[in-house]
Design a protein that fits this description.
Blueprint (H helix, E strand, L loop, with lengths): L10 E10 L2 E11 L4 E5 L6 H8 L7 E6 L2 E2 L5 H7 L1 E3 L12 H7 L9 H6 L2 H20 L15 H14 L4 E5 L7 H18 L3 E4 L3 H7 L2 E6 L2 E6 L1 H5 L2 H7 L13
Parallel strand pairs: 3-8, 3-9, 6-7, 7-8
Antiparallel strand pairs: 1-2, 1-4, 4-5, 9-10
Helix pairs in contact: 3-6
Amino acid sequence: MTDSSTHTPVVEFSDVSLSFGNLKAINGVDFTVNPDELFAIIGPNGAGKTSIFNVLSGVYRPQQGSVKLNGHQLLGMRPHKIARLGVARTFQNVELFANLTLVDNLMLGRHVKFRYGTLAAIAWVGRARRQEEFHRAAVEEIIDLLELQAWRKLPVGLLPYGIQKRIELGRALAMEPEILLLDEPVAGMNLEETEDTARFLLSIRQEFKTPMILVEHDMSLVMDIADRVLAIDFGAPLALGTPAEVQSHPAVVEAYLGGQAAPADGGGH
């Protein structure tokens, strides 16, 4: 596990609150993510997990709090600028270009790294050609890591769902992110596909040292691979700690058993 006492956090999500009218989507959530850490956020449907991701990626702007990436304040920045700073995300539903090949979809993940204009791209000479070759080499490394070689020339719309989810992970990784946001990466997968995804996530940590925030309903996956876990319900934090600590926390157990969640201030029911 990453030792938070010896590292400057990559992500600082500080006392964030987000409301839509009278609905509190996020209510005083506070956490950090350290270098090379796999940090998980769990909670029942509607708990606010995706809202946290939308704040991190600039889709939502909270009314209160601070969100920093490597010391840079993200609040108020447009999503494309946040992406350029190094926030990459996968989605619950596959968001690929179905008519493009695996390679082309992964190359789209490199767009934040391109440093040449339209005319240079059309001519495909000099700097543009050298960069294209460099980016393709990076994509090939990801194809090898995620074991996608067999599907490289096929339109991704023809590929099995589990492979499409893996390609989406590869496209996010192609951005060389400072933080990788994984929104239910094994949703809809069978046991074998889930085990493969867990293996690939651990390989990404080993090869690229990429810190990750994982939102996932598969508790066995979370408990197996996460360093720390934040449990939330009704937008408010319930528990933060190791997987074992959070899994056995009374408020977490109650929330998952369908009881009334503990109040944000830790008071009685």
